[in-house]
Each structure stands twice: as structure tokens, then as C-alpha cells.
Amino acid sequence: MIDENLPTFYYRPSADSIKHDATIYLSQYGGDAAPAYTLRHPDPIALDSKNRYAAALYDSYNPEILFGEVLLIPEWTQPTLSQEEVRRNGGVPPPPQPILPHEFAIQLYNPDQQVVVKQHPASWNSASYWDFDMPMQTFRQPSTSALDRTQSDPTASEITPKINFKWKKDGKLSKDLICNLSSKSTNGDGSKRKHREPDIPIAYFRHLRQVTVYEPNLSRVEMEDPKGLEVVLLLSAAVIRDVYFGQMKEVFNITETPKQNGAAGRRTSSPIGVLAAAHGRVPSSQQLPFRKPIQYISPGSPPLPGNRPPLRVETSDPRPPPTDPRSQWEIDVETARLKKQVEHEDRERKRAEHAETKRVKAMVEAEQKEARRKQADIDKETDRLRREYAAEQRRMEQHTQRPTLPPRQSLPPRHSAPIYQQPYQRPPSQPQYQQPYLQASGPGGQYLQPYGLPGNPTASGSSNNGQPALKPKRSSFFGLRSHSDDNGQKIAKKQSSVF
After folding, report:
1. Strands 8-13, 210-213: parallel, antiparallel or unpaired by DSSP?
2. Among 173, 171, 177, 182, which Cα is nearest to 241's?
3. Are 168 and 127 in contact (CB under 8 A)?
4. Bridge-partner residues for 12, per DSSP?
5. Interatomic CA distance for residues 46 and 63, integer angstroms
6. Residue range 453-496, pLDDT digits in tens
7. Could you read off the pLDDT of 417-456 as tens digits, one per residue?
8. Strand, helix or coil at 25?
């Protein structure tokens, strides 16, 4: 049971709800715990926090006061030359794995001092431990001499005596750590094999959550800077807990190997998001600048108020150059993935173009076939209509054409007397004669003769040799039939003028 009167520091989550920060509270003499320090870690999604571990100890009430910090960059395994491993990993070498460092340095400020904490692995008869040295003299001696001011600090001098401290496990199966002041040897030659004083406990790290300082034993520590020792104890305890008792990938903020889908190495997320995630950047809508509408200004017009010259866009990569093999490997893997993706997209594009060309060709052939079929139907219908109208035209010509009659034979006249024949004349388009028809006199005169027609002796109004006009002979209507001179009772047929 630890005495509650001893100063005890508790590591608790930050009151600002920042997951990667912690607040160190101090409790002494049974009182309530009050914040004393703030333990800060870099943001895990920040670009500068990848593949490294960093911690800094600030004052709890004045965040601008920095007491000390630790920066730990691990070493990495060499890439394998096995082709089987490369083939199994998708054509790229497997990712380099971090190597657990065996030491880390704590940088103190005001005065500047660097304390190196070294790890000693466990052996068959001893547990692992971490030790560090601190100088007995830290501050300069007051002097008005300018020569003394040009000399280096005692902490940087190699002749300054130092005190050794050691963090080791309280037991083989326990995670509790205890910090002891290494004992001094009583031998004249300085060897520690015999006649060694017992170690003096200085601090106790219980359950990896609280550090208790044995204040009565601090009076036996011969050094000028007890505040520096307190900062080193708190920082070393936090680093040992995180690095050597935690998950290495989480501690060093190592990005997991991205899983690939398919031969082309496609991912479920977009390439921009993957690149941002691989290098510690998460794209958000707040990071995207809003673009203003473009205003066109003529060369001779003055600039509009509020307009500024356009900013130059930096085309260089904003990411810093890789400082470790892991970052270089991530870049190589991303390059290989993008190369495969581009090749896959080229193949898909060519396949799509070939399919589209084939589809268009088939569509054009189908359209040409349909056009030929329609043209054949049109030609067929045209021939059918041509034959139908030609047959009907022949039928119409047959109905409208007059039949050809055989020529008639002229009969010899039955009487020797000449027959007066008068050719048939088509009545002119002039108005018809309106003289009344004359009634023929005589025994056989039953036909009407128009008055004033040529050949009518009555219409001539004259007589031969002054003799009175004789009675004309009666003839048939339109001269088709006429009486002969010898026999007025016989008539002869008149031949047609057309045939």
C-alpha cells in the first residue's frame, strides 16, 4: 500500500475531449488531484505524424510553457528479395515492418539538456530494464567574466559527473515499473561487482497509470535540477508504456496496407480519398475553397474595386519528401496501384470501344438490310401497280377503239338511168336554216326538202332559157335515195362517203 502523503501523478484523458492528449494530475497529502501537466501527442491524421511517435509535456495552466519532448522514429526492415513474397503481395514488395527501438532521447528546455533512455533486453537471469543518466551539475556558476560565458553548459560537458537511474519491472509477470537510483561502488577501481550499495527507489509506476515519487529519497539524489528529474520521470514512464507495452502500429501511427480488389488493384474508395488517407489527410468540404464567378475585364478598363491579382497555383506536391522507408514504400505501392488501374482502365476502354464499334456496325448493317428490304417491297409494289395499270389501259383502249368493218361491194344499178347522188355534208357550225321545209308534190313525194338548198330548182329562183321551172324530182332525205329518169318508182342506194 502506497502512502497517500507521497506525491502521485495520474495519467487521465484530456478534459478537452482530445483523444490523443492526456492530463497529468497531482495529488499529495491526501488532497484532491489537481492538473499539473499536459501530455500532448500529434494528431494521428496529420501528415507529419505518420510512422513516428512524439510526445511533449506542457504546463497545465500555461500551454505555452514546454518542459520537454520526445521524438521517436523507428528503424525499418529491408525489403525482401523473394519473388514468391513479391508475387504473393500483388507484384510489389511486402511492406517494411518497424523495428522496436532500443533507445530514445528526451529533450529538456531551459536549460537545454538531452537525456538518452536505453533499453536492455531481458536475459535468462534478469528482466529487461531502461536506464538513463543525468548530470549532477546543470546550471552555470554565476560569474561576471566574459570568458566564463563563452564556455559550454555543464550538461554538455563530458567531465560533468552523472547519476544513473534505472526503470525495471517489479516482477517477471508484473507490468509495474520501479525507478531506482543506481548504487555506488565502494571499490577503489570503481567496479560494481563487489561491495555495492543497495539501489535507492525514486519512483513507482503502478498499473502503467500513475507515478508515485518517493519524496524522502530525493534528498539522497545529489543533483541541482530536481524539476528536470521529475519531467524525465514522467516523460520516460509515458514513452515506455506507449512504445514497449502498446501496439506498435498504433503507437507509430502506421497506415495499414490497403486491400486491393481485382487484378487491377481497384479499391472501394476513390483514389483521392485513398491518397489522403495514406498520407494523413482527410478531404472535407471545408478544405475546398469556394470559387467566385469570373469577371471579364477589358485591357483598357481600370480594375474593379476589391479585385486582386490572381494567386499562383502551386503545382508541386504539398506532401513532404519521404523520410522513412515506410513512406517510400507507400508511395511505391500507390504508384504501382495507379499504374495497374490505368492499364486496367485502358483495357476496359479499348474493350468498350471495340464493343461499341461492333454494336454500331451491327446497327448499320441492320439498317442497310432493312433499307434493302423496304426498297425490294417498293420495287415489287411498283411492278404490281405497273402491270395492273397497263392491263387496265389495254382494256380501255379495246373498249374505245371502233371495230373495223369489211369493205362493202357496190351493186350494179338496176336501171340504166343515172342516179343523182349527192355527197353527205356535215352541217356547219353556223346556225341552221330556219326556212320552212317545202312539201314535195308528186305521187311519191313523202320526204321534206329544205328550202334554199343547192340543187333545189325552187331555191334558184330562175329557169332555163326563160322557161318556167320544171318540177324537181323527189329524192330521199339527205340524198340517200333518188328516183331515176326512166322510172321514178325505182330508187338506188347511195354509197357511203366515208367507206
Report:
1. antiparallel
2. 177
3. yes
4. 23
5. 20
6. 444 444 444 444 445 555 555 554 555 554 444 455 555 566 66
7. 555 455 555 555 555 444 444 444 444 444 444 444 444 4
8. strand
Task: Report the alpha-carbon distance of residue 189 to residue 184 in Å, rounded.
Answer: 12
Cα 189 to chain center, whole Å? 76
Which among 292, 275, 273, 274 has a CA at the least distance from the CA of 284?
273
DSSP 3-state of 494 = coil
CA distances from 61 to 34, 56, 209 (A): 11, 15, 22
Indicate the pairing of strand 210-213 with strand 438-439.
Answer: unpaired
State the pTM of this model.
0.58
Give the closest residue to 47 by CA, choosing from 320, 263, 256: 320
Helix, strand, coil shares of the chain, percent, nearest 5, are 30, 20, 55
Q: How many CB atoms are closer than 10 A to CB 454?
A: 8
Per-residue pLDDT, 91: 72
What cell numbers appear for 280 in the block? 494523413
Q: How many C-beta atoms lie closer than 10 Å to residue 170's C-beta? A: 14
**Listed range (2-16, 55-69, 182-196, 384-398) with the worst mean pLDDT:** 182-196
Predicted confidence band at 236 (pLDDT cuts at 50, 70, 90)?
very high
